[in-house]
Design goal:
about 270 residues, alpha/beta, 12 helices, 9 strands, about 45% helix
Amino acid sequence: MIPRVSIIMPVFDAGIDLKQALRSVAGQTFRDHELVLVDDGSTDRATIMILDDVAQRPGVTLHRTANHGPAAARNLAISHARAPYILPLDADDWLDPAFLEKTVPVLDVEPAVGVVHTWVGLVGAHHGTWKTGPFALPELLSRCTLHVTSLYRRELWQQAGGYDARFVESAEDWDLWLGALERGWTGHCVPEVLAYYRRSPRSRERLARAPGVWRRLVGDLVTKHRALYDAHLPDAMAGLYEDNARISGLLERIYDHPVVRAGVRLRGLLRRG
């Protein structure tokens, strides 16, 4: 019997974090789903053993490949997936038990909606709540407004051409969302924290901060989606400046706090001493 949802998970040396991701899949209150795992060339023995164990469970399939990055691994997982709805989940993130229960019905009743996203809890080396969205222009031209763990129709992935493997360090999900917008898909937000995004020393986004990486990634995005950027360039640029102004204002308020100012003065005295 074909499930309603295929949860796809690329895995590369995730270690113990993988167990929490797997528990969150098994704990979903919406039960009509399968889990498709792709071992993207793991060498860590603990990761390999966890994958071998979970692959024995009903509703779980495991595929192994050489390491090509998350974009290629997700495409491979979807090629083996059976469901009309796709939910990507990274191996170091996890889901609230009600994630599928609260997102699947939106796609069931709203045929124009291609993707359902939720608020995201930030854990590990970052903190707070990411209130994702909007899935709209021009906002999505300035920044990636959705987390990768968003439920979408398989048809959206097909029409957008899948995940582009050139985006190795980051932005492969951003590219997919832009491709979906180009084809007229709309999004819907469930305003609850139903997914958790872990930042750790192994996180890919730390690699993306190396000099020149984001310049190349954004250059590839603009080149690929040039018609969108040409049509909305003033709004996209304004969005970037607004984000910079907001961040600058936040930093100013932080550094103007009496405790922080005292700490800065103390650090200066210690350095001079």
